[in-house]
Amino acid sequence: MGYCYRAHQVEGGNFNSDCWLLEHTPTRLFREPSGDACDHYHRYREDIAMLARLGFNSYRFSVEWARVEPEDGEFSFSRIGALPAHAGDVP
Fold first, then answer.
1. E-strand spans in 1-91?
2. Which of 4, 26, 45, 67 has its Cβ near the most Cβ atoms within 10 Å?
3. What are the residues whose beta carbons fall under 8 Å from the beta carbon of 65, sequence distance 6 or more?
């Protein structure tokens, strides 16, 4: 049994995301903004450990592109370099 999510739904606080902009426009498409969500971006180790305790044996994650490319043509290599490290943290 597996678990998957969309980055913007669980990471929170990603002000560079197009979704964040859409959440805060006067004619927004969303009922309410995501805000801090569940802060999976910083709590992924705890979240993945909890999924393992619950019996999940697979985990599909997405990366919010706005973290990798916060502005057009500007790439955050520190974020890109951290991605493979996350994969090794799965219990």
1. 2-4, 58-60
2. 67
3. none
